TrEMBL record:
InterPro entries xref list: DIOX_N, IPNS-like_FE2OG_OXY, IPNS-like_sf, Iron_ascorbate_oxido_reductase, Oxoglu/Fe-dep_dioxygenase_dom
Protein name: Fe2OG dioxygenase domain-containing protein
Natural source organism: Drosophila yakuba (Fruit fly)
One Pfam family, short name: 2OG-FeII_Oxy
GO MF terms, alphabetically ordered: metal ion binding; oxidoreductase activity
Presence of the UniProt keyword Iron in the record: yes
Transmembrane annotation, as ranges: none
Length: 331
């Protein structure tokens, strides 16, 4: 056990190598949006990810939602089934194995998607406190997302409110906007249970679909990325209290691939002390309104636009991704 602990202490990650940009949101003033915008621009063009620190979202708020999801997973199966994600919608409970990002590999993960703060999306009757805790956290993550969009508008030198206006219906329902708060729990892997993790993964390789993702996690749990220009999978590591941001596919299309949509996955860690404990995370997937047309021409200067670039709505683009992931249409 001592030797195992020493090996885990020496686990090399992007965090241990200081290879992930860190953006401090603490300082107030008129220059904050400009500074953060420039730092995000550099991070998205060079790495595709960054850590946000001093972001103002209390750890207690995040932990409260993790605790509530644990309570949901302790409910009887028949109650969980009432809230299971159904074909045609994006909200609800997703049990291990329902999602397969590579189309075949079983994924050991519990998830619960919230697209709107209403009775349909949240199991209020079974867990009355869950709705309050999620609403509080969603309010903070939505506000952070709007600030990030304003910072990107400055960095990209595009009209004010370009992004903000196109994301005006976040968390008003997946029929209007696919933005989603996702609670995640990766169960502990117990080696004395034969076949528990054989041929499985915690989350298959993929890029996120939307504009960007905000991720809070409680520990190192196997998150890996492929940095731009590399096919090597590298462990990210854990920076306590930080929120990880990564760009999504729609943002990459909008910026004509100047901003990277980073491939990532969550593997079953080889380190015993990591694999034998459960891992919580919360992801906030920021999406444009479904009706918004996504065109790289929007952010190009005069003379740069190309008429042959095909234009899709945000809804059309994400539906293809859901079809790939679930083997059926989401809506």
């Amino acid at each position: 056990m001592i030797n195992s602990k020493i090996r885990e202490d020496k686990l090399e990650t992007l965090v241990s190598r200081s290879a992930v940009p860190i953006i401090d949101l603490a300082h107030c003033g008129k220059s904050l949006v400009h500074r953060v915008g420039q730092q995000l621009h550099k991070a998205f063009t060079e790495k595709g990810i960054a850590f946000l620190v001093n972001h103002g979202i209390a750890e207690d708020k995040i932990k409260a939602v993790w605790d509530q999801f644990d309570n949901f997973l302790d409910l009887p199966a028949e109650i969980q089934d009432r809230h299971r994600r159904k074909d045609g919608v994006n909200y609800g409970y997703v049990s291990p194995g329902m999602e397969r990002f590579d189309g075949s590999t079983p994924e050991l993960r519990h998830a619960y998607n919230v697209c709107k703060l209403d009775e349909q999306n949240i199991p209020r009757e079974a867990l009355p406190e869950l709705a309050e805790d999620i609403t509080t956290l969603c309010t903070d993550l939505k506000a952070m997302s709007l600030f990030i969009m304003k910072a990107m508008e400055v960095a990209l030198e595009i009209p004010p409110s370009f992004f903000v206006d196109k994301h005006s219906q976040m968390l008003e329902g997946d029929d209007l906007n696919m933005s989603t708060l996702r609670m995640l729990y990766y169960p502990a892997i117990v080696d004395d249970e034969p076949g528990q993790s054989e041929g499985a993964i915690r989350c298959g390789a993929h890029v996120d679909y939307g504009t960007f993702t905000l991720l809070a996690q409680d520990s190192e749990g196997g998150l890996e990325v492929q940095l731009p220009g590399s096919e090597k999978w590298e462990r990210v590591g854990h920076l306590p209290g930080a929120i990880l941001i990564n760009g999504g596919e729609l943002l990459s299309i909008w910026t004509k691939q100047r901003y990277h949509a980073l491939p990532h996955r969550v593997v079953i860690p080889e380190q015993e002390l990591i694999r034998t404990r459960g891992r919580h995370s919360i992801a906030y997937f920021c999406h444009p309104n479904n009706s918004i047309l996504i065109s790289p021409n929007d952010l190009l200067g005069e003379g740069e636009a190309k008429s042959e670039d095909k234009v899709y709505s945000a809804y059309e683009l994400i539906q293809k991704k859901f079809n790939d992931t679930y083997g059926q249409r989401s809506q």
